[in-house]
Amino acid sequence: MIAQRIMGVVLAGGQSRRFGSDKALAELAGRPLMARAVASLERQCDAVIVAGREPGVADRPQAGMGPLGGLNGALHHAAAHGFDAVLAIPVDGFDLPADLVGELSPGPAYAIDAPVIGLWPVAVRATLDALLAEDTMHSMRAFALRTGARGVHLSRKPFNINTPGDLIAAKDHAHGL
Predict the structure, then answer these.
(1) Is residue 59 part of a domain?
(2) How sure is the predictor about 176, in pLDDT bands with cuts at 50, 70 and 90?
(3) Domain total of the chain
(4) CB of 28 within 8 A of CB of 36?
(5) Residues 15, 49: contact at Cβ < 8 Å?
(6) Does residue 115 belong to any structural domain of this protein?
(7) Alpha helices, DSSP H only, in 10-163?
(8) Chain centre to alpha carbon of residue 23
(9) What is the pTM of this model?
(10) CATH for 115
(11) Which end of the chain, N or C, is less packed with Cβ atoms under 10 Å?
(12) What helix, strand, coil percent values describe the chain, rounded to 5?
């Protein structure tokens, strides 16, 4: 079997409305959430980028498209740089399975409990371009349906930090990670 070149992407373009401040910079056990997410991907990917903020890859076709805009920017960037697939996680992604790529392989596949987490072959970028050009539902699940992606129950349920209260709840779990 030929090894795939995997580019990891942290989807960090959200406006953090429910959180009340820039969630990417919020600290969990002394480390910003974005740094934790990047470190999580570095252990599993050939390269890691951040989508939706400077410096990083811009959302495509424009900012404000939610996680799909960041994923689309990452898929196009990965294809232009010779990668086979993109492993996407949200900016609050931490304490993920040690072999997330293996659990999601073969792609396209996404985590049932957190559809923003997924393994996407770069070939699906045309499907995502088409979806984002339509006046229709722009959701990860809609994209997954269009690509025939498999829903996967991960070995470890991902945290979802949307509010300061969620961050406080995650702190007990995060020490030592």
Answers:
(1) yes
(2) very low
(3) 1
(4) yes
(5) no
(6) yes
(7) 33-42, 67-80, 100-104, 125-133, 140-147
(8) 15
(9) 0.92
(10) 3.90.550.10
(11) N
(12) 35, 20, 45
